[in-house]
Design brief:
heterodimer; A: 177 residues; Nuclear Transport Factor 2, Chain: A; six-stranded mixed beta sheet; 4 helices; 6 strands; B: 464 residues; alpha+beta; Rieske Iron-sulfur Protein; Naphthalene 1,2-dioxygenase Alpha Subunit, Chain A, domain 1; 2 domains; 16 helices; 21 strands; 25% strand; globular; binds FE2/S2 (inorganic) cluster; binds fe (ii) ion; dioxygenase (chain A); Rng_hydr_dOase-bsu (chain A); EC 1.14.12.19 (chain A); 3-phenylpropionate/cinnamic acid dioxygenase subunit beta (chain A); 3-phenylpropionate dioxygenase activity (chain A)
Chain lengths: 177, 464
């Protein structure tokens, strides 16, 4: 790729800023445990949300590390609503008392896919601690998102979370990535 | 050329036989005798959930003695297919060798102990050690070393293959291995559980296959808490999983097991939670819809097993001693959506006394339409597994074991209550009219299966 090609492939400043702001706002809502705010303002009704299972392979078969058939989560808008509704009951013990989380979102790369769609890749480092302990879990990975502009605002249409874990080092995925 | 032995005349060594379990010390003997007498009273010391010494005895006397689950035949369909798997805390290579035989090889080079396989999954005819380059066939046999003609001229390769499980066998697609050369056969070990595995997994010749790779995640709890839950704990569903009733994905009747759940306790510490749930038309055996149940031929089943199915029985969960469990149930991913029936295998892998790794496999019928299998997979993952809306809460509940088990105060003053359903406690009774094997209860409101599991545990630890 020549320098010129890189420059023409750059997203506009507005596009990039608005996508980054979307990711930051999403992280803020989730870190503040505003699950319904997140569900209502960030997710598209066409949502496809997947976290494939990862398995250690030799370098020559590296592409096959992420399963195409096995998932830690494979969700839709409807099943996300089930999860959020559950968190709002008084008996969702995994997140009650809630984890203290901090979602650090970095290395954002934006590519325009069409007039109202953007591919947004980002790195996520999620700190999670719960209860009266100094212990914490780190959940780390890359997110490959597609955002769609709906009624003047970005919404998450699809998310693929590529984890840097084969064995998850947290007792449950009661938190959203 | 003369050999450079340390002492002249020293002979090249061969392996000695395997060593049996080490002796139990006196205080451990006393503690385990107490466990046994406590269980008769329906009590159990919290120490069992966190004690490094006890953990070591478990690795020695349970995981090297029992038949332990290591995978499903569908995970290694071709010669050379391998996976890294665990028996207790030891890593093994589960591999289908060039003869099509399933082997379980200890993943440690006979030269200095380097791992000969470091990918968790793949296909290979040989394993080559990275350190000095010793090569082993995928049957485990020693196959050569660099500079062999100069370095190992007198070497007897037959002695120096990878250590391997002396017994590997499968039943209804489930592969188990046993590290004890003197073990009984797998069929004998499973005993009456075979009868139930037939009705759960053997409904047609094609059988079930795993989907994707297993979930694996770290749970801060003792492995026995999972085994104890799945062997018989239908009671916790009403309280711990109440949120699911509240949001409408779990029927209240199901949670309360209204006349529908009961226990089956089997010899060997195995136990099941059996359901009796009349299925609305057109659902068939165990709630499978017509496009699935029409593919069941029941050819492998006898008259009693067919009667079990005809009477609308199913199995919601079981534990095969020590650490393999099973789950099959209806689940809906959204309220109002039709439920679908999914099947899971789960294994409680010890990682020290305070932690275990949970492994979760989804199974699907090879004969079922893809659409059904996909929906069942999604229902399973949304209920159990790291993000499962059931299992998330279980992991929180089980976290109480290690801190209680290590507490000096708890060990001095506390016994867990295992008395539910004991004589005079409630309406839990033994049922006489049962078509299948095992000791069967009238209701789920008891803890016979759990007590039996723990008796088996204590017996195994004390066995001479
Ligand atoms: S340790 Fe494997 S060849 Fe030396
Ligand atoms: Fe549970």
């Amino acid at each position: 790729m020549t320098v010129e090609q890189v420059i023409t492939a750059l997203p506009s400043v507005e596009l990039e800023r608005s996508c980054i702001q979307f990711l930051y706002r999403e992280a803020e809502l989730l870190d503040n445990t505003d699950y319904s705010g997140w569900f209502e303002t960030c997710l598209s009704e066409g949502l496809e949300y997947r976290i494939p299972i990862r398995t250690t392979r030799v370098r020559t078969s590296r592409d096959a590390e992420f399963s195409t058939t096995g998932f830690h989560m494979t969700d839709t808008y409807g099943t996300m609503r089930t999860r959020v509704n559950r968190l709002l009951t008084e008996h969702a013990w995994a997140e009650d008392p809630p984890s203290r989380t901090r979602r650090v979102v970095t290395n954002v790369r934006v590519r325009e896919l069409g007039p109202d769609t953007a591919e947004v890749k980002s790195y996520l480092t999620l700190y999670r601690s719960q209860g009266d302990t100094t212990e914490y879990d780190l959940i780390v990975g890359e997110r490959q998102d597609v955002l769609g502009m709906e009624d003047g605002a970005w919404r998450l249409r699809s998310r693929l979370v590529l984890l840097d874990h084969t064995i998850l080092g947290t007792a449950n995925l009661g938190v959203f990535l | 050329m003369t050999e450079l032995n340390e002492k002249p005349g020293t002979r090249v060594g061969r392996h000695t036989g395997t060593v049996g379990p080490g002796p139990l010390n006196g205080s451990m003997q006393t503690f385990l005798s107490e466990v046994q007498s406590d269980l008769v009273q329906g009590m159990l010391s919290p120490r069992v959930l966190n004690d490094p010494e006890l953990h070591q005895v478990e690795l020695d006397r349970i995981f090297t003695k029992c038949w332990v689950f290591v995978g499903h035949v569908s995970e290694i369909p071709n010669n050379g297919d391998y996976l890294l798997r665990y028996v207790g805390e030891d890593q093994f290579i589960l591999v289908r060798d060039e003869q099509g035989e399933i082997q379980l090889l200890f993943n440690s080079c006979m030269h200095r102990g380097s791992p000969v396989c470091r990918a968790e999954k793949g296909n290979s005819s040989h394993f080559r050690c990275p350190y000095h380059g010793w090569i082993y066939k995928n049957s485990g046999d020693w196959n050569g070393a660099p500079q062999r003609a100069r370095a190992y001229r007198k070497f007897d390769g037959a002695d120096w293959g990878l250590r391997k499980a002396p017994h590997v066998d499968s039943y209804q697609g489930l592969i188990f291995a046993c590290l004890d050369p003197d073990a009984v056969s797998l069929r004998e070990y499973l005993g009456d559980m075979c009868w139930y595995l037939d009705v759960l997994l053997g409904l047609n010749e094609q059988g079930m296959t795993t989907v994707g790779d297993p979930h694996r995640w770290a749970v801060p709890s003792n492995w026995k808490s999972g085994a104890d839950n799945f062997v018989g704990d239908a009671y916790h569903v009403i309280a711990l999983h109440q949120s699911l009733e509240e949001i409408g994905v779990l029927g209240g009747d199901v949670a309360r097991g209204v006349g529908s759940n009961f226990h089956v306790a089997l010899d060997g510490g195995h136990g099941l939670i059996v359901t009796h749930m009349p299925m609305p038309e057109p659902l068939g055996y165990m709630g499978f819809p017509p496009e699935v149940h029409s593919t069941f031929d029941l050819k492998g089943l006898d008259a009693d097993q067919r009667a079990f199915l005809d009477a609308d029985h199913g199995v919601v969960g079981f534990t095969i001693f020590p650490n393999l469990s099973f789950f099959r149930s209806f689940g809906a991913t959204e309220p109002g959506k039709p439920p679908t029936t999914f099947t899971l295998l789960r294994q409680w892998q010890p990682k020290g006394p305070e932690n275990f790794e949970l492994w979760n496999w989804s199974l699907e019928w090879k004969s079922a339409p893809k659409e059904f299998n996909d929906a069942a997979y999604r229902a399973g993952v949304s209920s159990f597994g790291p993000s499962g809306i059931f299992e998330q809460d279980d992991t929180v509940a089980w976290a109480g074991g290690p801190p209680t088990g290590r507490s000096v105060f708890a060990r001095k003053t506390m016994k867990f209550n295992y008395q539910m359903g004991m004589e005079g406690m409630g309406d839990y009774a033994i049922r006489e009219d049962w078509i299948g094997p095992g000791t069967v209860s009238t209701t789920p409101w008891g803890e016979m299966n759990q007590r039996r599991w723990w008796h088996q545990w204590a017996d195994r630890l004390m066995a001479q």
